[in-house]
Design brief:
The complex is a heterodimer of chains A (about 425) and B (about 350). Chain A has about 425 residues and is an alpha/beta fold. Helices cover about 45% and strands about 15% of the residues of chain A. In chain A, helix 2 links the parallel strand 1 and strand 2. The chains are: A alpha/beta (about 425), B mainly alpha (about 350).
Chain lengths: ~425, ~350
C-alpha cells in the first residue's frame, strides 16, 4: 500500500489518548460520593426494542424517589439513583450490577431487567449478598423455583402464572356464555410465550372442559410480518383466539390482522393489550378485544391510582407502562421497609421486607404484600376487561380473585416440583 | 487460474525463514511476565471493577484472538464464531449443574464436545469460499441459538441456565472466590494466547497464511487445503469455547445471547478495532472495546452513536485496526530515524 500522507498522530495526541485512558480507570474512584446519600443502582434496558419500557421504569422510579427525598429520604439519607443501560444483554446486566455495587458504592439494587438479564442480576445478588428487588421480570420461575431463593432478593412484579389463572377464569366465563368451544392460540415462540399460553390453556380447560384448541401459531419474537399466521388462523375458523404477543409485536399483529377483518370473525383474548404502549400505538384499535390489565389508570378504580397515573402523565407527557407501576411499587416497599427497620442496612431491610404489606395505589384492596415464603409480590390489582377505541380504553375491568389464584398457584408449583 | 495470477500469488507469499526456538523462548518469557503482572494487579489496585474488567477481557480476548486465527491468518471470515463461545458457556454450565463433576473434568469435557461439534460444522463450512462460508457459519450459529431457545427442558430457553453454576473447589482453587476466579481467568488467557501464538508462528501457521493469500497455489504444492482449514476452524473453536467458559463463570450462568450473532459481530468489530495483521491486535481491540463500552455506557445512554462514530473513525479514518496503525507508525519512524 502506498502512503499519501505522513502518519497523523503526534506524540502530543498519543499522550492525550493515554491521559484519556487513565481518566477512564480513575473515574470510579473519583466518583465515590459522600456517605450521607444512599446510592441505589439500577441496571435496565434503555436501548433497543424494549427501551420504551426501560425508560418508563426509570421515570417511575424517579417520580417516587423524588417523593421519598422530599420527605427526608431513606432513614434521613437522600436517595441517589444510578441507572445504567444493559442493552438487554445478560452479561452486561451482570457486569453493570457488579460495577454499581463494587465501584459506585450502591447499597441496594433495583433490577430493571427482563427475562435472562434478571437471572444474571440474581446471580450477582447471590454472589455479593446485596439487597436486590427485581422490578420487571415476569418469569414465574425467578421466585417460584426454590433453587432461586436467596434471602436478599425479592420480586416486585406481576407473574405469568397469575395472569393465566385470572385470564382463564375470565375467558371460561365468556366461553360458556357464548358457546366458544373451538380456540386458536398465537403467541411468541420463546419461554414466556410457550409457558403463559400453556398455562392459560390448562386452566381454561379446567374451568371450561368443552374447550378444544384447534390451531396453534408460534410466530418468532420480533417477527415483522404476520400474514401467514393470520391466514392460518382464519382458515382454521376458531370461535376464539388467545394471544400473549406483547409490545410492538402485538400492535403489528393487530394492524395486520385488521386488514383481514380477523377481529370481527372471532373473540380475541390478548393478555397484554391493555397497556398504554399498545393501546395508543395501534392504528385502529378494534372494539371488544379482551385483555388483562397491564397498567390502566382506571383499574383499580381508586382516586390514588388515577392521581398516580395523572402525575406521571403530567411529568413525562406520556402514560405509564406495566413496568412503571412495578418499579414505583418497589420504591414504596423500600421506603416502608427502611422506616420499619429504622436502618438502611440491607440485611435488616430484607428481614422487614419479607412478608411486608404496604398501602399502594396498585393493590387489589389498596395494599400489596411481599409474600414471605417466596419473596414475591402478591395482592396487586389483576383483572380482565374489553377494549374500546378511545380513553379509558378498557372501561370495565373484572377483578380476579386472589383466593383462587393462591389455590391454583400452589397446585401449579407442586406440579412443577417446586414444593 | 492463469500463470499471471499464480505469479502474483508467489510475490505476496514469500514467508521469511525463521529459526523458531529463540522466538518460542521469548514468547514463554513474555507470557510469564504478562501473567505475573496480571496476578500482581489486585495487590497494586484494590478495585474489584478492575478484576471484573480483566476477567471479561480474558473471555472476549480469547474469543476475538481465536477469530483472528480464522479471519486474519486464514482468510476465513466467520460470522458464526460466537456459536462456540455459547457452546462453551452452555456445555460447561450444564456439565457443572447436571453432573456435579470436578471443574477440570467439565472443562475438558466441554472442549471435547466443542471439538466434535466444530469438526462436523467445519467439515461442511470450510469447503465454501468467502461470502458462502460467512453465511453458512452464520446459519449454523442461528441453528444453535434456536436450539438453545427451543430445548427448554435442558437449557432453560430464553431464561438461560438458572440457579447459578456450582463451583466445587479443586486443587486448592475455589472459583467462587473472586480472586481465584481472576487468577484462573488470567492463567487461561495467557496460556490460550501463548498456544495460539505458537500455532500462528508454526509452519502450520505459515501454511494458513499461504492459503489465505493463494489457496490454489497452496493446493498445487501439495497442501491439503481443506484439512488445514478444518484444523484451524476446530482449534479456533476450542479457544472460543474457553472464552465462553470464563464468561459462564463470571456471570454464573449461560444465556442464549452468548450464542447469538451479535457476539460474532462483536468479535469482528474487536478485530476491526485492534487490527488483524498483528497477533495481539484482537487483544488490544478487546481492551479498547471494553473500555469504550464501560466508559460510554457509564456516561450516556446514547452509546450506540458514540460506538458508531468510533467504528467510522477506524473504518474511514485509519482504514485499519489500532495495532496495524501503531506497528506501521513505529516502522515508519524507525525508517525515518535510520534514513
Amino acid at each position: 500500500m502506498t502512503r499519501t500522507r505522513k502518519p497523523g498522530i503526534s506524540r502530543r495526541s498519543t499522550l492525550a489518548l493515554m491521559g484519556a485512558g487513565a481518566v477512564t480507570f480513575a473515574a470510579p474512584w473519583v466518583a465515590r460520593a459522600e456517605a450521607k446519600t444512599i446510592k441505589i443502582g439500577m441496571p435496565t434496558i434503555l436501548s433497543g426494542r424494549v427501551a420504551q419500557l426501560g425508560t418508563s421504569s426509570r421515570n417511575a422510579v424517579m417520580l417516587e424517589v423524588e417523593k421519598v427525598n422530599a420527605a427526608g429520604g431513606l432513614a434521613g439519607r437522600q436517595i441517589e439513583m444510578v441507572i445504567r443501560d444493559s442493552k438487554g444483554q445478560p452479561q452486561e446486566a451482570a457486569r453493570i450490577a457488579r460495577e454499581l455495587v463494587n465501584t459506585d458504592g450502591c447499597e441496594m439494587l433495583l433490577d430493571g431487567e427482563a427475562s435472562s438479564g434478571s437471572f444474571a442480576v440474581h446471580e450477582v445478588a447471590r454472589d455479593l449478598g446485596v439487597l436486590c428487588i427485581h422490578t420487571c421480570s415476569e418469569a414465574s420461575s425467578l421466585t417460584a423455583d426454590p433453587k432461586q431463593h436467596i434471602p436478599n432478593a425479592f420480586r416486585c412484579v406481576r407473574q405469568g402464572i397469575h395472569d393465566s389463572i385470572v385470564g382463564a377464569g375470565y375467558a371460561a366465563g365468556i366461553a360458556k356464555t357464548k358457546g366458544l368451544k373451538k380456540w386458536a392460540t398465537c403467541s411468541p415462540d420463546y419461554a414466556y410465550g410457550r409457558d403463559t399460553t400453556g398455562e392459560f390453556v390448562l386452566y381454561l380447560k379446567k374451568f371450561a372442559p368443552d374447550v378444544e384448541v384447534i390451531s396453534e401459531s408460534w410466530p418468532k419474537l420480533f417477527q415483522p410480518d404476520y400474514t401467514e399466521v393470520v391466514t392460518k388462523i382464519l382458515q382454521a375458523k376458531p370461535q376464539a383466539l388467545y394471544s400473549c404477543l406483547w409490545g410492538g409485536d402485538l400492535t403489528s399483529y393487530i394492524d395486520q390482522a385488521n386488514i383481514y377483518a380477523l377481529f370481527t370473525q372471532m373473540e380475541v383474548f390478548a393478555v397484554n393489550m391493555a397497556d398504554y404502549t399498545a393501546l395508543t400505538v395501534v392504528k385502529n384499535l378494534p372494539k371488544g378485544i379482551h385483555s388483562g390489565d397491564r397498567y390502566i389508570k382506571t383499574f383499580p378504580a381508586t382516586p390514588e391510582n388515577a392521581a398516580w397515573g395523572d402525575a406521571y402523565k403530567a411529568k413525562y407527557n406520556e402514560y405509564p407502562t406495566n413496568w412503571s407501576w412495578q418499579n414505583a411499587t418497589a420504591v414504596m416497599f423500600l421506603n416502608e421497609a427502611v422506616k420499619k427497620a429504622n436502618s438502611t442496612d440491607g440485611k435488616k431491610v430484607a428481614e422487614v421486607l419479607t412478608g411486608l404489606t404496604i398501602k399502594c395505589p396498585f393493590g387489589a384492596d389498596g395494599t400489596v404484600t411481599m409474600r414471605a415464603d417466596d419473596r414475591t409480590l402478591v395482592g396487586y390489582a389483576i383483572g380482565w376487561g374489553t377494549t374500546i377505541p378511545q380513553e379509558p380504553y378498557v372501561p370495565d375491568v373484572k377483578a380476579g380473585d386472589w383466593k383462587t389464584i393462591f389455590e391454583l398457584e400452589a397446585e401449579w408449583k407442586k406440579s412443577k416440583g417446586y414444593t | 487460474m492463469t500463470e499471471l495470477q499464480a505469479g502474483q500469488g508467489a510475490q505476496t507469499m514469500a514467508p521469511p525463514r525463521i529459526d523458531a526456538r529463540p522466538q518460542r523462548y521469548r514468547d514463554v518469557l513474555v507470557a510469564l511476565v504478562a501473567f505475573v503482572v496480571l496476578a500482581l494487579l489486585p495487590m497494586m489496585f484494590g478495585s474489584k471493577q478492575l478484576l471484573d474488567f480483566v476477567i471479561r477481557c480474558a473471555a472476549y480476548g480469547l474469543f476475538a484472538t481465536s477469530l483472528n486465527l480464522l479471519v486474519g491468518y486464514t482468510g476465513l471470515i466467520s460470522f458464526g464464531h460466537g456459536m462456540f463461545f455459547g457452546l462453551g458457556a452452555y456445555g460447561f454450565g450444564l456439565m457443572m449443574q447436571k453432573t456435579g463433576v470436578a471443574i477440570p473434568v467439565a472443562f475438558v469435557a466441554t472442549l471435547a464436545m466443542t471439538f466434535v461439534v466444530a469438526l462436523v460444522i467445519g467439515a461442511i463450512c470450510v469447503r465454501l469460499k468467502e461470502i458462502y462460508f460467512a453465511f453458512v457459519t452464520l446459519a449454523f450459529q442461528m441453528l444453535i441459538h434456536s436450539t438453545i431457545l427451543s430445548w427448554q427442558s435442558l437449557t432453560g430457553g430464553d431464561q438461560g441456565l438458572r440457579g447459578g453454576i456450582p463451583r466445587p473447589p479443586f486443587l486448592g482453587i475455589d472459583l467462587s472466590n473472586h480472586l481465584h476466579l481472576y487468577i484462573t481467568s488470567c492463567a487461561l488467557l495467557v496460556i490460550g494466547l501463548y498456544l495460539m501464538r505458537q500455532i500462528a508462528q508454526s509452519p502450520f501457521g505459515y501454511t494458513l497464511r499461504m492459503i489465505r493469500d493463494n489457496a490454489t497455489r497452496a493446493s498445487f504444492i501439495g497442501i491439503d487445503v481443506w484439512r488445514a482449514k478444518l484444523t484451524i476452524f476446530v482449534l479456533a473453536a476450542l479457544f472460543a469455547a474457553t472464552g465462553g467458559m470464563i464468561m459462564a463463570l463470571f456471570v454464573s450462568g449461560a444465556y442464549p445471547e452468548f450464542a447469538y450473532w451479535t457476539i460474532s459481530g462483536e468479535g469482528i468489530f474487536i478485530n476491526m478495532l485492534g487490527g488483524v495483521t498483528t497477533f495481539l491486535g484482537p487483544m488490544v481491540g478487546t481492551v479498547l472495546l471494553l473500555i469504550l463500552n464501560d466508559t460510554v455506557t457509564r456516561l450516556t445512554e446514547y452509546h450506540g452513536i458514540v460506538l458508531g462514530i468510533v467504528i467510522l473513525f477506524f473504518a474511514i479514518g485509519l482504514r485499519k485496526g489500532l495495532m496495524d496503525f501503531v506497528v506501521e507508525w513505529f516502522a515508519q519512524r524507525r525508517g525515518e530515524g535510520s534514513g
